């Protein structure tokens, strides 16, 4: 069972990476996939974009911001394409991101994100353009109402599959959701057993 921080309503500055087709190997290169733990993967998120071969910092946005102040990543179209790897959302979350926003998010990456506590938000082009036009803005995400609010007053209603939304709100994965309902499950089994 995986417990994570519940996602409900939070405000954060955005980080903009407008490149399209950011794949999972760019988010976390394959050579870092040998670990089975999430801890420490934030250090290698976007590793080849952040660091030179000698380990020194490149001139890259993630090396210049306070991760605690910038918890929402806005990326170009087709975010998370490429091979399936849970390490990609793990790395983004360990870095400090709570949500990713794009006009299109690859299905497998979206599914892996939802299962691991990272909220993928798909927006229309008009909302995306407003995010790009003000890359230092603060946004508010309300998962209860599925609303993304921008500084200019724009409110965009996004969609999240209902079971995944409930898990994010409760801060659990699918197994954790079941375990929380174990008393009701046991009661149902007992009543069905007696009825049989």
Detailed description of the structure:
It is a single chain. The chain is an alpha/beta fold and 196 residues long. It has a single domain, classed as Aconitase, domain 4 (Alpha-Beta Barrel), CATH 3.20.19.10. Helix content is 34%, strand content 17%. Strands 4-3-2-1-5-6-7 form a 7-stranded mixed sheet. The protein is globular, with a radius of gyration of 18 Å.
Structural class: alpha/beta
In the CATH hierarchy, the architecture is Alpha-Beta Barrel
Helix fraction? 25-40%
State the CATH superfamily name: Aconitase, domain 4
Largest sheet: 7 strands, mixed
Query: What number of structural domains do the residues give?
Result: 1
Order of helices and strands: EHHEHEHEHEEEHHH
Instruction: Please work out how many helical segments DSSP would assign.
Output: 8
Q: What's the overall average pLDDT, rounded? A: 91
How far is it from the N-terminal to the C-terminal residue, by CA? 32 Å
Give the DSSP E fraction (strand runs of 2 or more residues): 15-25%
Given this structure, which CATH class is correct?
Answer: Alpha Beta
**Overall morphology:** globular
With strands numbered from the N-terminus, the spatial order across the biggest sheet is: 4-3-2-1-5-6-7
Topology, number of strands: 7
Give the radius of gyration: 18 Å
Low-confidence stretches: none
CATH level 3 topology: Aconitase, domain 4
């Amino acid at each position: 069972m995986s417990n994570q921080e519940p996602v409900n309503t939070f405000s954060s500055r955005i980080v903009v990476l407008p490149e399209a087709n950011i794949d999972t190997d760019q988010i976390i290169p394959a050579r870092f996939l040998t670990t089975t733990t999430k801890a420490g993967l934030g250090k290698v998120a976007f590793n080849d974009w952040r660091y030179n071969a000698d380990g020194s910092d490149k001139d890259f946005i993630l090396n210049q911001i306070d991760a605690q102040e910038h918890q929402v990543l806005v990326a170009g179209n087709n975010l998370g394409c490429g091979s399936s790897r849970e390490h990609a959302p793990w790395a983004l979350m360990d870095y400090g991101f709570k949500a990713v926003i794009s006009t299109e998010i690859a299905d497998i990456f979206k599914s892996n994100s939802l299962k691991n506590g990272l909220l993928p938000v798909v927006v229309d082009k008009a909302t995306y353009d407003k995010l790009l036009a003000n890359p230092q803005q603060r946004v508010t995400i309300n998962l209860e109402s599925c609303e993304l609010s921008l500084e200019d007053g724009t409110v965009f209603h996004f969609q999240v599959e209902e079971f995944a939304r409930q898990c994010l709100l409760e801060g659990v994965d699918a197994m954790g959701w079941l375990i929380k309902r174990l008393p009701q499950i046991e009661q149902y089994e007992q009543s069905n057993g007696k009825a049989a």
